[in-house]
Design brief:
The structure is a homodimer of 244-residue chains. In chain A, a hairpin with a 2-residue loop joins strand 8 and strand 9. Chain A contains five helices and ten strands; from the N terminus they run E-H-E-E-H-E-E-E-H-E-E-E-H-H-E. Chain A is α+β, with helices and mostly antiparallel strands. In chain A, 35% of the residues are buried. At the A-B interface, strand 4 of A face strand 4 of B.
Chain lengths: 244, 244
Amino acid sequence: LRNIKLTLEYDGTRFLGFQNQRQGRTVQSVLEEALQKLFQKRIKIVASGRTDSGVHAEGQVVNFTVDSKIPLWKIQRGVNRYLPEDVSIVRIEEVSKKFHAQRSAKWKTYEYRVLQSKAPSPLTRNRTYQYYYPLNLAKIRQASKLLQGRKDFRAFEGSGSRRKSAVRTIRKIEVKQQGNLVTFRLESNGFLYRMVRNIVGTLLEIGQGRQNTQELRKAMKLKQREILGPTAPPQGLYLKRVKY
Amino acid sequence: LRNIKLTLEYDGTRFLGFQNQRQGRTVQSVLEEALQKLFQKRIKIVASGRTDSGVHAEGQVVNFTVDSKIPLWKIQRGVNRYLPEDVSIVRIEEVSKKFHAQRSAKWKTYEYRVLQSKAPSPLTRNRTYQYYYPLNLAKIRQASKLLQGRKDFRAFEGSGSRRKSAVRTIRKIEVKQQGNLVTFRLESNGFLYRMVRNIVGTLLEIGQGRQNTQELRKAMKLKQREILGPTAPPQGLYLKRVKY
């Protein structure tokens, strides 16, 4: 039995998220269908984690085991032919039997892209969050320092999630500007449900001057979601990389 | 009567090009419809030039005259509300009566984006030409020097075009690489039908080693399209800017 690791790129716009649901088109469902066509048997994949509807990936990682001798490059080419145009295997590797895309993950990197613009931008719709108000990046960077390190992130957790502890370690939050594009890059040993979008939503409120660092401090201490900014929309979010 | 200049951004994927046709969805048709809804009368626009189906714009320019006192920002906001999400007015100005979006144009800048990749890239499909073969940029830059200046570009003209002369002045061809994205930037006082895509198609053949500078020289001299490379596909092409 071979254990195969795939790195996926997908455009989340037309998917109802990554994980299989009772109904609807998900990344997992189209991938498992394509694998079944190639291997002529049912294949069950494991992913590093799920992504919501509208959220993109440049480096989502999944693995599956299969009893087949088809060479890796032929699996990649074959499955890519069966996949729809909004998802693609960009890398394929054979890994040890112990590798588990979710449990073996050590660090994850997400990117969130905000386009500063007064008029709608057709070319980057579904790829960025188009934000009308001017942003003070110095304030955003200052606030983001409060979120780095090992902390309880319950104030940034979406409702409806299951987990033992809300303690996570964010080891990097970078905020970069290139022209009118502002990019947030977050690296953590794990993210709670909607944590990235909740953090970005709050940092944007701070950058716009509608909230301040004091309120952020208070929300972190009291672990209260309600004090903080809204959840940033999904189309600006990219799962960039999973490190093992 | 006011003369109004609009700068447009559009995603060309779902348009049958810019210019009105007997049938089908064009940028001109959706824009004229939106203008008619706002002004409650038929408005005819003039564009700097047409773009093909699948070709994008970040800076297409059009103008129209109208007898109305609505302030510019209200026209922009109102028309953008009536426009579909794949086209948008990004700038609006009132200009002198003499301004004509096509005849007053002095220089045009096009960009062509090539993504070097072995596997399909879902996030940049419809936005780049995904190119499998490795490219020698030094060879491409060397060949592009032969195309700069005032020359007869008949060898790069698509069939079915009408024009008096095929002489144009290309004052810049820049080739840049950022990661696996190769960007061509061309500036000219005018482009023949499909000229940018034909130039890029040939430069890619040269960069890949399937053609050489000698053949390019010959084609330019003999004005023969047949010697040269294929037309690069539309989805990599962007009308960036029109200078007046």
